[in-house]
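Morning F.,

Quick status update on the modeling queue. The single chain you submitted on Monday has been processed. Sequence for confirmation:
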Amino acid sequence: MIENSRLVWNQGDESEPGRHDQLSLAPEKPALKRPAQFRVILLNDDYTPMDFVVEVLTTFFGMNEEKATQVMLLVHTQGKAVCGVYSRDIAETKAAQVNHYSSECDHPLLCEIERAD
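Structure tokens below.
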């Protein structure tokens, strides 16, 4: 237990009788790992209009019009493109939001996620 602890000096409080200065072990804070990162990937289809794809990228990924157009063209020419890299929960939420919105608007546009690291 000592390997994950550090020494702490506790000074006695004069207002509390019987409390004295002492040296004690306090547990060390565990080393924190960064959460796994996931890519949100937009997939091409032959039916979704390009302006709708740009709208999705600006709305759900906060891209400006120019960046959204660049990503939309990558999706169109390469079949897919990365919209962003996030922790798992955020990536899953963004992909689900895009898929739901596209479905509501009667477009087959889909997003998926894949582990980035």
